[in-house]
Amino acid sequence: MTLEQLRIFLAVARHEHVTRAAKQLNLTQSAVSAALAALEAQHGVALFDRVGRGIALNEAGRGFLPRAAEVLRRAEEARRWLADLRGGETGTLRLQASQTVASYALPRHLMRFRARHPGIALSFRQGNTAQVLAALRAGEADLGLVEGRIDGAEFETEVIGEDRLLLLTAPDHPWQHRAPGPADLAQGDWVLREPGSGTRAQFDAEMQALGVAILPVLELPSNEACIAAVETGHGATVLSALAAAPHLERGHVRAASLAFPRRLFHAVTHRARHRSRAASAFLDLLRDG
């Protein structure tokens, strides 16, 4: 069994299609098929069911999948550890950030890092806070950047910035003329970010503290989608002041009178995983502002 066979196995399992996996890996279809056949023949176990042109993991393949992924993760961790011993400006920094940080706070830091460390490649993915923390747990990211509260002693966190949530509605919404009370909030037509986002987590915590039960009419996966929904004149949303700023300037939405405490942006690493030189360099850059 080779690492290359495991990479091919994981790609085919992900795509459920040999041709698409081959394209992702920059290999020929025949090379991918041969590697899978060799892996199965070496161990006398079929890992896929092949039906027509389709291919899907069977029971054995589903059991093998997390083990193969863990082997590749450990191999990559070992490679990166050796690269750090060698030193120098090489390697890849795997960043994941939640949507608000990724869209409004991170881009300038990425460009500064690229200029300061041209030999380090940047791999970047965006998700909500829960997805970023899951990637750190799985060893799929070296450094996470999120907003809001971080639960779990497994993580090491450092404050890198802050912002505040705003209650947003269309300009002609009744809440623009009077501050909403708890009863108004409970009866509001809420358009909110999805569960798992830092924005949603803080809003839910604030409403719980007020004793207000919220039942959103829409849960949407992006700040822009929430803004677009309330711009129609219906409902209210709560978003980061950074995300709201350009829409407030255009006058499409307005902030209503409901105060939220500040929230912090955090850089997050996993305590049990080796922190690469590249991750440390990026943290140094964030500390510099």
TrEMBL record:
Keywords: DNA-binding, Transcription, Transcription regulation. GO terms for molecular function: DNA-binding transcription factor activity; transcription cis-regulatory region binding. Residues 1-58 form the HTH lysR-type domain. The keyword DNA-binding applies. Belongs to the LysR transcriptional regulatory family. This is LysR family transcriptional regulator.
